[in-house]
Design a protein that fits this description.
heterodimer; A: Rossmann fold; eight-stranded mixed β-sheet; 12 strands; about 30% helix; about 25% strand; globular; B: alpha/beta; Rossmann fold; nine-stranded mixed β-sheet; four-stranded antiparallel β-sheet; binds adenosine-5'-triphosphate; binds iron/sulfur cluster; binds magnesium ion
Chain lengths: ~350, ~350
């Protein structure tokens, strides 16, 4: 991405490489990921299951497991007072990183149970976070806040639920408790990893309204990982499409949906089931299978499954090419892809 | 369904969770997660189960497998030697039943043992199943992983080494591994991207044809359920409010709650920021459900009768198709649409 030192940028990830070392083998999960998160805007990240979306989010907050390493690249957080913090260089569980978590940058995890502690009530866990953010509240006030947070998430009888344990919640309620925890501090950056997978559309809509409220009133920048294209269409300003550890296409949501320039994006958009066609509709999964990360294609990672692939694709990974302002792609044959339309 | 062989007969099932308060943990009330549900599941069908978060979908699934204490009612399953109530089985009988009935849990992580590799977790049921040869087990597990688009040698990995969607697919592979008759899929594809989701849905449909598998498919994603389900049951606050074939439900939506549910689906088109008709009012608590029709405080068609009298789930026959609905205003809804319906029995 070109240097564009727009002061709207609150977080810049540049050429990030992350590897996991398990079973004495090295899995290069992120292979040069770059993007910006901007104040008051929403970036949606979509991509195949296992392509590295959660690892990207967890890298920002330095929450990767022990057997992994940021190999190279940078993650920079631009504070409101103009200082820059290199998150990738901070000590993982040091004081500075801990003080940023939740308060400046909050995360809603994909798996609610990693965030919720089974031995404390849900209300208690929300209050722990509010306490950090708003010291000096009385016990009573804290309780009121946590109850209100749950109620805003559309959880009925929030006074009772506040005193219940995570296992007494339904799947979707657990997810909402976690969203409440992530949002309660009005963070500068909200990283939401598949926040509404267990929620029906009505409640998701209500939660998206709340997120948009944060964005509007506090200038919160949102990075949302989702596989639901309906959600992307509705929430995103920009969208990044990931495949096997790279962002293969990035741009304004209107541009990417109207003019997909990467064969993967195009195939992905084509496999969305359409309501109203019923059982007669032909689902079109992308042909072939996800490559084994330990046995990756040499060139473009999408090559073995791609309808446009040529000789060069087999040996060389394409770099980022600008299609127009704010819209880039990683494909040698993007002109053909564009010419073919959706 | 030409030959309707009933595989599972649920009658007046109730699952109430006690609400405890104070130091003495006195029971002060109940969350009526499943509140008087009756339904039949036919062999070889996919029954979709939809409804808003917290309405009791997972509880119903777990109740069938006796994974939560069921308060009342019966659940008769068709074994080789006839129907038996799952609630009344002995320990060993229940263990056997749980081979025939599999569940893919909503939370895939907590259902995998973190201390075992995937091979370790999936191998056990296969040994019990009688596959003595280790090579054969490796082969079978490898094939299952490939079926859900995971590389074969992922079987040597531990659960925490997987992404959310990968874990979900392992849950599906595990359920399929013991050749069950009935699989309860609880939000089983919710973490998958559209392409892999399509692949898994196709696989499930293929197995259904080949092995006459039966599914109860819990999801909040109506496009998924529309694609997969033969029939759809709509739940609201622990009860079934509408139940009919998938085509009929979308063509002749009768219950006001179902109508609201269908109006709220987002579409993948950024040029159309869609207006939804949100349900008015708050989601009521299953601990203290409203009187009469439990949907009445949020219903646009609510009449006086609805506030006091609880409607029952009644069967209508519309163009030869059975359509269950529980709403006092159903006659008006039918008339407004000009639909001819017969009351069944
Ligand atoms: N703790 C871990 N140890 C080893 N490998 C891991 C670990 N966590 C993730 N991975 C691997 O890293 C890759 C990226 O995982 P990630 O969780 O980022 O995927 P994702 O894009 O979020 O997928 P999903 O949509 O399924 O959640 C996957 O191939 C996964 O197997
Ligand atoms: N083990 C439990 N103890 C106490 N209450 C429970 C328990 N399990 C579920 N409940 C309550 O029962 C009700 C129904 O929960 P259930 O998990 O069946 O909902 P669901 O329809 O699956 O929702 P979701 O779509 O959010 O997963 C909820 O109010 C929930 O809090
Ligand atoms: S670079 Fe080649 S293989 Fe990769 S997506 Fe483009 S055409 Fe397909
Ligand atoms: Mg993930
Ligand atoms: Mg559930």
């Amino acid at each position: 991405m070109p240097e564009n030192n727009n002061n709207d940028v609150v977080l810049r990830v540049k050429d990030l490489h992350v590897s996991f070392y398990t079973n004495q083998r090295c899995n290069n999960v992120l292979r040069g990921v770059s993007f910006d998160i901007r104040r008051g805007r929403t970036l949606c990240i979509v991509g195949e299951s296992g392509c590295g979306k959660s690892v990207t989010a967890n890298s920002i907050l330095r929450l990767l497991p022990d057997l992994s390493r940021i190999e190279s690249g940078s993650i920079t957080y631009y504070k409101e007072d103009g200082t820059e913090v290199r998150l990738d260089q901070l000590e993982k569980n040091g004081k500075e990183m801990r003080s940023l978590r939740g308060k400046d940058i909050a995360i809603i995890f994909q798996d609610p149970m990693t965030a919720l502690n089974p031995v404390y009530t849900v209300g208690h866990q929300i209050r722990e976070i509010i306490k950090e953010h708003k010291p000096g509240l009385t016990k009573q006030q804290l309780k009121q806040e946590s109850i209100q947070d749950l109620a805003e998430m559309g959880i009925p009888a929030a006074e009772i639920r506040d005193g219940e344990y995570p296992h007494q919640f339904s799947g979707g309620m657990r997810q909402r408790a976690m969203i409440a925890m992530g949002m309660s501090c009005e963070p500068k950056i909200l990283l939401a990893d598949e926040p509404t997978t267990a929620l029906d559309v009505t409640i998701s809509a209500q939660i998206f309204d709340l997120m948009n409220g944060l964005k509007r009133d506090h200038g919160t920048a949102i990075m949302m990982i989702t596989h639901n294209m309906g959600v992307v269409a509705e929430m995103a300003d920009e969208v990044a499409v990931m495949y096997m550890g790279n962002i293969v296409e990035y741009g304004k949501v209107e541009d990417v949906f109207a003019n997909p320039t990467h064969p993967y994006t195009k195939a992905l958009l084509r496999s969305i089931p359409v309501l109203g066609k019923g059982r007669n509709q032909q689902l079109e999964p992308i042909r072939g299978v996800t490559p084994d990360p330990f046995n990756r294609p040499k060139g473009c990672q999408f090559c073995p499954r791609c309808d446009y692939a040529g000789e060069r694709c087999e040996t060389e990974m394409p770099s980022e090419e600008w299609v127009k302002e704010g819209h880039y792609t990683r494909c040698f044959h993007f002109r053909e892809v564009m010419k073919d339309g959706k | 369904m030409e030959n309707k062989e009933i595989l599972l007969k649920v009658r007046n099932a109730k699952t109430y969770f006690p609400i405890k308060k104070g130091v003495l943990k006195k029971t002060v009330g109940y969350v009526k997660a499943v509140d008087d549900i009756s339904l039949d599941v036919y062999r070889g069908e996919t029954l979709g189960l939809v409804g808003e978060s917290g309405c009791g979908k997972s509880s119903l699934g777990k109740s069938i497998l006796q994974l939560v204490p069921v308060t009342d009612g019966s659940m008769e399953y068709k074994f080789e030697d006839g129907y038996k109530d799952l609630r009344k089985l002995s320990r060993t009988e229940l263990d056997n039943a749980r081979k025939k009935i599999q569940i893919v849990f909503q939370d895939p992580y907590s259902s995998l043992n973190p201390a075992f590799t995937i091979f370790g977790s999936l191998e056990d049921p296969l040994i019990k199943f009688g596959i003595k040869d280790k090579k054969e087990r490796i082969e079978k597990i490898g094939k299952l992983l490939e079926d859900v688009n995971l590389p074969r040698d992922y079987m040597t990995r531990y659960p925490n080494e997987f992404s959310g969607g990968q874990r979900q697919r392992i849950g599906i592979a595990r359920a399929l591994s013991v050749d069950p008759e009935l699989i309860i899929c609880d939000e089983a594809v919710s973490a998958l991207d559209v392409s892999i989701q399509a692949q898994v849905l196709k696989l499930l449909n293929k197995l259904k044809e080949e092995r006459k598998l039966t599914y109860i498919f819990i999801t909040h994603d109506l496009s998924v359920v529309e694609y997969l389900a033969d029939r759809i049951a709509v739940m609201y606050l622990g009860r079934i409010v509408e139940l009919t074939t998938s085509e009929e439900l979308f063509a002749n939506t009768l219950h006001p709650y179902t109508k609201a549910l269908l109006s709220a689906i987002p579409i993948a088109d950024p040029t159309k920021k869609k207006k939804r008709i949100p349900l008015q009012g708050d989601v009521p608590s299953p601990a203290n459900p409203p009187s009469g029709c439990t949907f009445h405080p949020r219903c646009p068609d609510c009449a006086e009768q609805c506030k006091t009298e609880r409607p029952i789930l009644e069967e209508y026959i519309i163009n030869g198709v059975s359509h269950f609905v529980s709403c006092h205003k159903v006659k008006a809804a039918l008339e407004a649409k000009g639909i001819k319906a017969e009351r069944s029995k």
